[in-house]
Amino acid sequence: MGRLENRVAVVTGGGRGIGRAIALELAREGAKVVVSARTRSQLDTVVEEIKEIGSIGLAVEADALNRLESKKPVIEAVSHFGQIDILVNNVGGGVPGDQNPYTHDDDTFEANLALNLTSAYWTTREALPHMKENNFGRILTIGSGYAKRSGGALAYTSAKHGLIGFTKALAGQVAADGITVNCLCPGWTNTALVDWEAMGRARGTDATEAHAWRSAENLQNRVLEPEELGPMAALLAAPESAGITGQVISVDGGYKV
């Protein structure tokens, strides 16, 4: 029996990359897992992988940039399973547009904030009353190496810093109800969101050099795999992590220590 047996988890942005890896790790620990994203085919694949593990998965198509749709995964979890115990606010990334600080497009800035920060609020807001009723909840926000320092695009970095403030403020306000809130920060990780070729072109080089450049930014001189985030996420989701809240925890190979 896994340590998440009889628990229900929601993982947003769960169709690929870090979200998929976390969803599968939670399933290995016995949780029923609801995964959401915009791409149905990716979600269906993850649900099949969850079934192969021996757990139960549910796919929910949802656009995190839409306030009502961002709440759908939680609504569906409660409708199908009667509860939500774990919420992983993993959805994030970049909304394309002019992000030069001198000419920045206003709509692009706001859309990036919504995707990386506000959507986490919307989904969490839907989950909190259910967690309070059961006197148990584990909320994870997924930050970034840029959640604690500069380096990324203006809106993205602002939003990821905001996630830390969101995590700490919420942790203090829900602690008495058996709910913990933590921020898990990856560094450079091999996911589809990282375009090594484009990064290389921007520096006048190629994908191989770009990969080596980013690898050198952490103590282990490597880019991590999404699966390396899963065990820490499972620990923070487990009942025995009750004493861990309001924390920013990195799984990044020692990024810019």
Question: In words, what does this structure look like?
Answer:
It is a single chain. A seven-stranded parallel β-sheet has the order 3-2-1-4-5-6-7, with helices on both faces. It has helices spanning about 15-30, 40-55, 65-70, 70-80, 105-135, 155-175, 195-200, 205-215, 230-235, and strands at about 10, 30-35, 55-60, 85-90, 135-140, 180-185, 250. Helix 1 packs across helix 9, helix 4 (about 70-80) runs parallel beside helix 5 and helix 7 (about 195-200) packs across helix 8 (about 205-215). Helix 5 (about 105-135) links the parallel strand 4 (about 85-90) and strand 5 (about 135-140). With about 260 residues, it is α/β, with parallel strands linked by helices.
Quick summary of this structure?
This protein is of the alpha/beta class and 257 residues long. The chain contains nine helices and seven strands, in the order βαβαβααβαβαβαααβ.
Record keyword descriptors for this entry.
257 residues, alpha/beta
Which secondary-structure class do the elements indicate?
alpha/beta
Q: What is the terminal-to-terminal distance?
A: 37 Å
How are the strands of the largest sheet arranged? 3-2-1-4-5-6-7
The largest pleated sheet is described as: 7 strands, parallel
The proportion of strand residues reads 5-15%
Low-confidence stretches: none
Overall pLDDT confidence? 95
Q: Given the C-alpha coordinates, what overall shape results? A: globular
Helix proportion: 40-55%
- Element order, helices and strands? EHEHEHHEHEHEHHHE
| Count of distinct strands | 7
Helix segment count?
Answer: 9
Alpha-carbon Rg, integer: 18 Å
